[in-house]
Amino acid sequence: MIRLHLHLMSDSTGETLENIAKAGLAQFDGVETIKHFWPMVRSEGHLDRVMLEIAARPGLVIYTLVNSEVRRRLETRCHALGLPSVSALDPVIDALSSVLGQVAKARPGRQHMLNAAYFARVEAIQYTIAHDDGIAAEDWEEADIMLAGVSRSSKTPTSIYLANRGYKVANIPLVVESPPPPSLYGLRHPLVVGLTTSPDRLIQIRRNRLLSLAQSPETAYVDQEAVAAELSFARRIFSDNGWPVIDVTRRSIEETAAAIINLVNERRSAQEKDAGDTEAGGAA
Fold it and tell me: What digits encode the pLDDT tens for the residues 130-140?
């Protein structure tokens, strides 16, 4: 097992760096990573204080700093300490500058400006949290996406991930003993998507959940026949209503969300085409 101190330094929130580091680390096995976050570093004095901490825990430094003096000081200090340092966005910005024929605007945190898209994402997250696990059915029509599936079929984490992409998402568990409200079948605005998985995988996830709660792992919740009946019940509902279905057995949350977003975009394109055909027909 390799132990790595990873220092993520930014002149903004550090969100971009965190995502880059996560994507990079996913390519390696056997690494114990200790992440150190250094956000809002915008002055040489602040940098000097951070460098004292980095020197005490040497490792790889990845940064996004636009101030040339602060960058130069960081690179000099890292070189003196024998530490590798990488400017995460330079290759992308250089390529864009070349293609666009423009010089990049050196504004710290420019990608995180509070614009309409930011507030829409916040609203989506708030809506999604308030409509988890079948709550507030009276507001489901406001959702962009409705996820349906049996317990532990990754509805909630997928909903939160989609909310972070700006989609309002509600979800509902499908329970044999407690059928969903009729309003679920009359939704017009949200795209309703069914999530399913293999019985063996579902039982494994449920067993782990019970063990984490210090509950007996031998209940109907993980019984092979009962689980198969639940999944069959859900599949009938999906089929009867013509909802698209995604099997999450071998998908990550990100992959499931990407598939759902593709379905949303396909539906939107079809609706726009239908609207265009209707207008053309009316004009004729």
Answer: 999 999 999 99
Do 133 and 246 sit in the same domain of this protein?
yes
Residues 170 and 249 both lie in one domain: yes
**Number of domains the chain is built from:** 2
220, 176 Cβ separation under 8 angstroms: no
Give yes or no: residues 60 and 195 share one domain. no
pTM above 0.70?
no
* Residue 121: inside a domain: yes
Instruction: Give a yes or no: residue 284 inside a domain.
Output: no
